[in-house]
Amino acid sequence: MDARGRMLVILGAGESGVGAAILGKQRGWTVFLSDGGTIKPSVREQLETLKIEFESGAHQMERILSADLIIKSPGIAEKTPIMQAIRQKGIQVISEIEFGAYYSKAKHICITGSNGKTTTTLWCYHILKKAGLNVGLAGNVGQSFAKQVAEENFDYYVLELSSFQLDDMYDFKADIAILTNITPDHLDRYDYNMSNYVASKMRILQNQVAADSFIFNADDPIIVSQIEARALQSQLFPFSLKEVPENGGYADSKQLQININKQQLTMSIHELALKGKHNTQNALAAGIAARLVEIRTEIVRESLQDFVNVEHRMEFVAKVNGIEFINDSKATNINAAWFALESMDKPTVWIVGGVDKGNDYSELTQLVQEKVSAIVCLGSDNAKIIAAYKDVVNTIVEASSANEAVAYAYQLASKDQTVLLSPACASFDLFESYEDRGQQFKQAVRSL
């Protein structure tokens, strides 16, 4: 892309924004970064050293609207006044991923889905790294993709992509696309319209040609109906816990198998590094991707056995007087909490709550009935949760901090029971982020 004499405006000074600024400067753009909030001192220092112009605390609209191209943080919603003004002016807006791809010659393995995408991304990266490939990790995890394109020279990237990132991607192409599942999430950003959200997720397939691959969950009815409604050129590689595909992956209660071009990998389900049906699906998706880049079956098998999962996702914290504490703070929607509760094999005190994104708590009623002995609500407004479960669980209490939630849970749990933080909600009513919520939970557990 020719940058001569062209103005690049970047909205947001987070990881992706700063990475885009670094790449833009390197490639000859006139770069201006604007953040309506405060910019961390370390980031300010970095921008000053690189001689990248920036502002914080406000947006100079005239300057922003003079841009030839705008890269926005995935967190900025379309309904904000700044985005409405930009759209009215007709300026092209893209994501940092799209911008990085303009200058990347690497192969892109891209993962999206409502749940399981971080685990699948990290698992896939782990296999490629273990096989000795020159591979980068970016998107929603790792360092900024654009920054790595500027400073590294990877042959492969494993990219975790959110629906927000995909919304601002147009020319980008995934060489291998993975779709883990589609369940209601972030509906507040999609006018509470599920079809808008589904359309965002399916953007991972745009621009794919016959040489490209699409790995998908064949047990997900939404994905299957979307595939049937489209004339896809990609090669299809389904994974399933119900049927054995000719080319793809399958697992039952005993064994996992991956069949790619008549070569088969089989292993015991009990050898997988992570337990639970959802993690079996993640393993199948990552394993198929690895086989498609021709990694030897024995390395794939070893990597499916020795992978260590991401922090804040079903993370064992401690056992205190026989009570097990699990940190699943990354579960920010109903479906993620469903997976967590489904994998519980002991009576559970469930810590739930935060910023509701249009949740339908009735989806969890049966699991709550079967698994949950008490509920601790950890949010500033818990009325919807209490209304959903007051006739299902005898004990429901409210807490306004991680310390208070852990103290209540410790009192309510008996020996050989589990305390599970799996909030089903975003965190920013009481915490800075889901990571902050998870760290405070772990600290509170360790202080018992």
Characteristics:
UDP-N-acetylmuramoyl-L-alanine:D-glutamate ligase; alpha/beta; globular; Protein-Tyrosine Phosphatase, Chain A; 23% strand; 448 residues; Rossmann fold; six-stranded mixed β-sheet; 17 helices; 3 domains
Q: How would you describe what is shown here?
A:
With 448 residues, the chain is an alpha/beta fold. The chain folds into three domains: 7-94, Rossmann fold, CATH 3.40.50.720; 98-306, Mur-like, catalytic domain (UDP-N-acetylmuramoyl-L-alanine:D-glutamate ligase, 3-Layer(aba) Sandwich); 315-446, Protein-Tyrosine Phosphatase, Chain A. The protein is built from 17 helices and 20 strands. The chain has helices at 15-26, 41-49, 61-64, 81-89, 96-102, 117-130, 145-151, 163-167, 194-202, 221-228, 277-292, 297-306, 334-342, 365-371, 383-389, 402-412, 434-446; strands at 7-11, 30-35, 53-56, 69-72, 92-94, 107-112, 135-139, 156-160, 176-179, 213-217, 235-240, 248-251, 255-260, 263-268, 315-320, 323-327, 348-352, 372-378, 395-399, 418-421. α15 links the parallel β18 (372-378) and β19 (395-399). The mean pLDDT is 93.
